[in-house]
Amino acid sequence: MFSRDTLSYDPIPLPDRCEISDADMQDAAVAFFEKMRRRHTVRDFSTRPVARDVIETCLRTAGTAPSGANHQPWHFAAVSDPKLKLRIREEAEEEERRFYAGGAGDEWIKALEPIGTNAVKEHLTVAPWLIVVFAQRWGQFEDGTRYKNYYVPESVNIATGFLLAALHHAGLSTLTHTPNPMRFLTDALGRPASEKPTMIIAVGHPSETATVPSVAKLKKPLEEISSFF
Fold it and tell me: Considering the entire predicted model, what is its pTM?
């Protein structure tokens, strides 16, 4: 964060140094991997409520993500109001019907078949929380003067990853949803023209009968997703 009159470089000693042994490093890495490999995208949510303070803490975690020039070009709109969730669902489903009626193209629809999705997005009203992620394309000083944000997509994507990990660590399930176009979210949530919605994250507990598509368990092996030099 910065202001118009405070743009000097002021280094301070590293405040939080993680000092662990090499052996503990591997143990920690394995423990986190085992935790994250149990994360599953679900579409069947329970109506069990989730306390606001849990959502707030997870959003604080997202806010610790690195960003271009430390501008932190993101905003997270957390929605629990049933009427607003219904409005979001109705407008999202309108876009989804166009998508599945031919807007997506045959190849994209074919690729989605193993996932089992369609234009009905019940999770948008059943899940206790929706978190809409906005990318701030530019910022403004108090006098209204604009300033440029840098590496906005990269920064927002990293923060969203932090958020998904935090929600899973808190024992919650999520579903990322990207209706296209998403401009209706800007209007529904009263966000400024400088912000672009990038994603809706449904958050809650899975229902007792929740399922996941079997294909979701197929992950590429390490040798396919990485190279060492």
Answer: 0.94
pLDDT at 31 over 70: yes
Contacts of 191 (CB under 8 A, 6+ apart): 75, 77, 134, 185, 197
pLDDT in tens, 151-182: 999 999 999 999 999 999 999 999 999 988 89
Q: How far apart are CA 96 and CA 93, in angstroms?
A: 5
Strands, E assignment, 87-224:
129-136, 138-140, 146-148, 173-177, 195-204
Angle, in degrees to the nearest 10, between helices 22-36 and 152-169: 90
Residue pair 140/147 in contact (Cβ under 8 Å)? The answer is: yes
Q: List, for residues 88-104, the tens digit of each pLDDT value.
A: 999 999 999 998 998 88
Nearest by Cα to 127 from 185, 168, 85, 169: 85
- How far apart, in whole angstroms, are the C-alpha atoms of residue 216 and residue 219? 7
Copy the structure tokens of residue 139. Answer: 């910022």
SS3 181: coil
Give the Å distances, CA to CA, from 110 to 104, 116, 198.
10, 10, 24
Return the pLDDT at 3.
66
